[in-house]
Amino acid sequence: MPPSTAHRGHLSRGWIAALLLSLGPAASAQPLQCGTFKDADSGARLTVESPVQGSRLIPGAAPEPYNLEQLEDVLMLANLATGDIEALQIIDEGHALAGEERYYTLESTAVCQASPVFAAGSCRADIASCMDDMAVAGPERWRQWCREGVPAGCNRLIEDYRSDARNALVLDIALASNREEPAEPAACQRGSTDVDAEACRQAEAVGRVRDAAWAFSVARSIPRDVPLPAAQLDEVSMLCREHPSASSCHAAAVALWASARLLPARDAMQLACSSGRDPQACSSVAPLAALSSADLAIVDVATLPCGRYAAQGHALVFGDDAQVQVDASGRQPAVMREGAIRVRNEEGEDHVFWQLANGDLVGNDRWARFARYQRDGSSPTCGARASAGTALR
């Protein structure tokens, strides 16, 4: 196998120039073949549709859209969903593409499509600069790039909204906390006979560690996905409908679901499945497809359920002692808080389950989000009992 020239990450024009210099002079550039290339080890297929666009399909995942640019014997691939850039060396008269992780060989040829012309000032008109700026561009440009059909812009916008919402929630919890600050050590009190600069510095260092540990515990208690403001939810839902892709519609679905907008979340996941051709999205949305808008209404849990509830690959077994087994884990106490069922796991995080109007349960945590649990009747009948548990803070 030829030596690798593939690198991942955000590659500036300067870096690309250095890469080309490192390859040495070539008598003539290798031709870029249109068609499908396959990596035998992973089964990944890279399709070159035109000199400037293509896609990669990894088994079990959604197709990834790419912007292509040939520079001498190097094919630069900008992943439009993630913002990553990869460099592959074109070898064997264009019949192979050599990378750090994969080695593609031409499986079938195709007639190259006409290269589209990208509007001046658009992301794809200067893809290297756009990818370089992706992490720090800000909402206005992310929004613009999303509308141009660059899913990475949509994803960055949603992630920015999510980060702001988490930070705001952490701040609200901190401000509402009744945590009392310890008294100033005597070693730090001016005018005290016990004043000691070194002892004071040590006491302040201990205080900073204590404050950091408290802040960390607050942040850790908050899930990664928290409800977003209504205007932002409306926007991400609209962007998914108008510019559907597997990654951005999946991100929109997660944001909508975490905000208890189950119907538009299902619609966004359906678009990730149908327009984005994402098999994982199709698997997630299938159990929800038959539910009406009335079924998808969330109702407050009045008492803990009892019996076995099954979902795709998941199971909940509630006993009549307010204990529940989540999948293969040990039995844990379940509590009702804010209208939902919560079960603390061994990692110190909560499994969260909402009850639907039709009696089903749905998950709202990173392990079982979108999972629909239905009572399967396999457990003995038992009397449901409300939990006397307290908040899991």
Overview of the molecule:
With 393 residues, the chain is α+β, with helices and mostly antiparallel strands. The chain has nine helices and 18 strands. Strands 2-3-4-5-6-7-8-9 form an eight-stranded antiparallel β-barrel. A hairpin with a 2-residue loop joins strand 3 and strand 4. Helix 4 runs parallel beside helix 7. The longest helix has 26 residues. The protein is globular. The N terminus and C terminus are likely disordered.
Structural Rg = 27 Å
The major sheet is characterized as: 8 strands, antiparallel, barrel
Poorly predicted runs of 5 or more residues: 1-15, 20-27, 384-393
The strands making up the biggest β-sheet line up spatially as 2-3-4-5-6-7-8-9
What would you call the structural class? alpha+beta
Q: Report strand %.
A: 15-25%
Signal peptide: 1-29
Keywords: Signal
Question: Could you list some keywords that capture this structure?
Answer:
signal; 393 residues; disordered C terminus; 18 strands; alpha+beta; Lipocalin; 8-stranded antiparallel barrel; 31% helix
Brief overview:
Residues 1-29 form the signal peptide. Helices cover 31% and strands 23% of the residues.
Task: Outline the secondary-structure elements.
Layout: E1 8-9, H1 13-23, E2 35-39, E3 45-50, E4 53-57, E5 64-71, E6 74-79, E7 85-91, E8 96-98, E9 103-109, H2 127-133, H3 139-147, H4 151-176, H5 197-220, H6 230-242, H7 246-258, H8 262-274, H9 279-285, E10 298-299, E11 307-311, E12 314-318, E13 323-326, E14 331-337, E15 340-344, E16 350-356, E17 361-363, E18 372-375
Antiparallel strand pairs: 1-7, 2-3, 2-9, 3-4, 4-5, 5-6, 6-7, 7-8, 8-9, 10-16, 11-12, 11-18, 12-13, 13-14, 14-15, 15-16, 16-17, 17-18
